[in-house]
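Fig. S4 source data, part A: sequence.
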Amino acid sequence: MIRLAISVEGRTEEEFVKQVLADYLRRRNVEPTPVLLGRARSTGQGGGNVTVERLTQEMVRLYPDFNAVTSLVDFYGFKDKGNRTVDELEEYLHEQIGSRIARSWNETRVFPYVQQYEFEGLLFSDVSAFARVGDIGMPENVEELRNARSQFPTPEDINDNRDTAPSKRIEKVMPQYQKVVHGPLLAEEIGLDTIRDECPRFDAWVTRMESL
């Protein structure tokens, strides 16, 4: 069994790994362990405040104790992404990790993953799930989310403007949405296969994990 550490931004991502990814990966001989990053780990609450330094340091720390290390953090809100694209940010993180691990470095076993643009984008893979989970979505709310989804090639392309990021769109029409509570439940309801079909970057990440 391949032991895989996943450095996660917050409780939502932690529960997503446990509720959605874990069983799937175990059937492929990969045992994923979500590890809360920084403040989220020390307080048991919240998330965010992700920086290159914090994520690099965490993945380097995890490297000796696992067969492979990856991450699940949002591009939206990443503190020092600067003008980098999400792919450029992942490449830069990979370089920084490699420079710290140095001679013991096996670059095939460390692959930072940054979700474009945030976890909630995955939930737009099937917005009808909002009407089936937790009594948070009425038909008219779901239709508004469906209209938003139709404006973009994939759910991952829904932009990261502070007013129109995926989470902001959801919270605007469904104020009762609670990220930690409903996010993993919705992802489980939608199903990993549907999310992978709709979200090519996410699909590539899962393929990388199941191929370890």
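Fig. S4 source data, part B ends here. The radius of gyration is 17 Å.
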